[in-house]
């Protein structure tokens, strides 16, 4: 493994993009299609980050297998229709995201990546819509067990050749932070996401992306 490179991994929903409106809307449509009452906004936000099959099982605990499958497919269809219609506005970037990514990408030792509960199709669509070209490793729910299993982080480190002590996982939910912790990397919580940051027990918490680069410099100089 390289002793010079540093790997900065980001969650997507609730960390880089504010997709809560898109997610809650697609959930409401999916539940309506199977004749179920839609979950509350708080319930939906609580499961963001999980793979869809696990998320639906949490939101509809009494549903049988075919109903859960229908919920998953209904959500995917609704989300995709809304994404195609909405473009960038469907899942807008949080303030400062592009400037932060550009600044980090300009540091020769830094490699940037994504570890997300989105499908590969959904991840690729967000990357294309916002021209997020700086990610050298992209881990999605299609190819891994659901968060908080560490597979996404471990695979990203294997692909880039970066050691755990030189890797950070940045996210907004307990699933992100637990995943990073289990993988043995540094964890950074953002306080604008979908789970209360003060309950995540991350190694560090930031209040804006302007704080990230100085934090990383301190972290890796220690």
TrEMBL record:
Gene3D superfamilies: HAD superfamily/HAD-like (3.40.50.1000), Putative phosphatase, domain 2 (1.10.150.240). Transmembrane segments: none annotated. GO terms for biological process: DNA repair. Pfam families: HAD_2 (PF13419). GO terms for cellular component: cytosol. PANTHER family: HYDROLASE-RELATED, PHOSPHOGLYCOLATE PHOSPHATASE. NCBIfam families: HAD-SF-IA-v1, HAD-SF-IA-v3. This is HAD-IA family hydrolase. It comes from Parasedimentitalea maritima.
